[in-house]
Write a structure and sequence with these properties.
There is one protein chain. By secondary structure, the chain is an alpha/beta fold. It folds into two domains: about 90 residues, Translation factors (Elongation Factor Tu (Ef-tu), domain 3); about 130 residues, Rossmann fold (3-Layer(aba) Sandwich). It contains six helices and twelve strands. The strands form two sheets. The protein has a six-stranded antiparallel sheet with strand order 4-3-6-1-2-5, with helices on one face. A six-stranded parallel sheet has the order 10-9-8-7-11-12, sandwiched between helices. β8, α4 and β9 form a beta-alpha-beta unit. α5 runs parallel beside α6. The protein is globular.
């Protein structure tokens, strides 16, 4: 029995912002829709023609649902067809996509949680945060830790947004660490798993397993944090929701 064909939609770029020399934040609207409904953490599959074929690439949505719009962020990859196509798009240009897809979404009911990301793995975390703190009933006072790691200062994406959330909400904790030497950086250094472990050890022993983790980034980072939480702190694998992008 043939599977039903996926419905394709049109996304029109209406704003673009450079997050760093190689990274763009793109804002799209879907002119065919009154609203674009998705669950924070999901992704869309962008489509473009190349040499008679249709090329498809998945991108996490970097925003909470809002009318008929969505944001994505991505790195320009040298020689990469799709990343260069998107980064070079001009306002008003369109492409096709299908979605939303994916199960990298917040558990219901929400518990205290650690959001762990590196690089552009911050995209779904921004989606989570925008939704969680749009309405107090969404976060319900749960402790939300965002542990973000990258190499260099210019690659701290959405830094001002997350720092402002940290100032506004006592239950949101933004922990950012750089893994390379950066002149003038006075913040944290090292890998994200070091700070995940610190968070765990600072919680009362009887509360260390009563939470969930959401991890997005490269395979080695995802694996290191899964191992830490399950082997050192006795978490069940179902408590660790993850998405790899390599």
């Amino acid at each position: 029995m043939a599977l039903p064909e996926r419905k394709h939609f049109t996304a029109r770029l209406f704003r673009t912002t450079s997050l760093s020399e190689q990274t763009k934040h793109l804002e799209f609207e879907m002119p065919e829709m009154e609203s674009f409904n998705f669950i924070p953490g999901q992704f869309v599959s962008m489509m473009a023609p190349k040499e008679g074929k249709t090329i498809t690439r998945a991108y996490s949505i970097a925003s909470a649902p809002r009318t008929n719009q969505m944001d994505i962020c991505l790195n320009r990859v040298p020689g990469g067809f799709f990343s260069n196509l998107l980064c070079d798009m001009e306002v008003g240009q369109e492409l096709k996509f299908h979605g939303p897809h994916g199960y990298f979404t917040l558990r219901n009911p929400l518990r205290d949680c650690i959001l762990i990301a590196t690089g552009t793995g911050i995209a779904p975390m921004r989606s989570f945060a925008e939704w969680l703190f749009a309405d107090d009933s969404h976060h319900a006072g749960r402790q939300i830790y965002l542990v973000y790691g990258t190499r260099y200062t210019p690659d701290i994406y959405y830094r001002e947004y997350f720092e402002e959330l940290d100032r506004q909400y006592e239950n949101f904790h933004y922990i950012c660490s750089l893994s390379r030497d950066n002149v003038g950086w006075t913040g944290l250094r090292g890998y994200v798993q070091e700070y995940v472990k610190k968070i765990m050890l600072e919680r009362p022993a009887d509360q260390r397993t009563d939470m969930d983790a959401y991890i997005c980034g490269l395979n080695d980072m995802v694996s290191a944090n899964r191992k830490l939480l399950m082997e050192e702190f006795g978490w069940d694998k179902k408590q660790v929701v993850f998405e790899r992008y390599d």
